[in-house]
Design goal:
By secondary structure, the protein is an alpha+beta fold. It contains 8 helices and 11 strands. A hairpin with a 2-residue loop joins strand 10 and strand 11. Helix 1 crosses helix 2.
Length: 225
Amino acid sequence: MKKSKLRKIVAGFPLFSELREEQLDRLIEHAIVSPLPKKALFFSEATTAHGMHILLTGKVKLFKVSEEGKEQTIFILGPGEPFCLCSVFCGGRLPGSLAALEDSEILFISPREYEHLMREDPSIMMNMMRVMSRRLKEAMDLIDSLSLKQVPSRLAAYFLSREKDGKVTLDVSYRELSKIIGITPEALSRVLKKMTGERLIQVEGSNIYLKNRAQLADAGDGRLS
């Protein structure tokens, strides 16, 4: 990727939105861009890493695999999203695995360069804290959903958290959605059919229309099963 194009992309990321021109130039000069083909594994739980990684283009998922081989998707990340956050300062083994959902590119910044930028511009640290706080909340919500809620409640909560004007446009396949919810694709199909039959939702391809938001909210809160 040409440096001019890379600079334009990075300048639009919230994490670096307040960098001065010379800081942005230096970041681009020291950054490394790596391609990640669709379905390729970027790292696993057995991997060690150091430095800041940011998704430049494409879409990736962070997931864990149980001893029985069951996959649980934790986060779906898009352009501008940092990952391997624990490796920025402490390095060591990573807490999950990351794979590409589509052809992607990853931006790498060394720990030394990233720390240098943070010392020059504390706004980067503040932006990073916002990202980490959001990720922590999402992780806690996921734990709550998987451990305390029945499948319809998990799915309703997922839809409500992504609703826009009564519609949810899925940016992942139904197979990937089942991994986020923590069920099999077959179980997801049954729940979607049941919710459609109860006129809670209407499914049209990747679009989910919420037909009864009040009842979905009850389900999302665990008051329906």
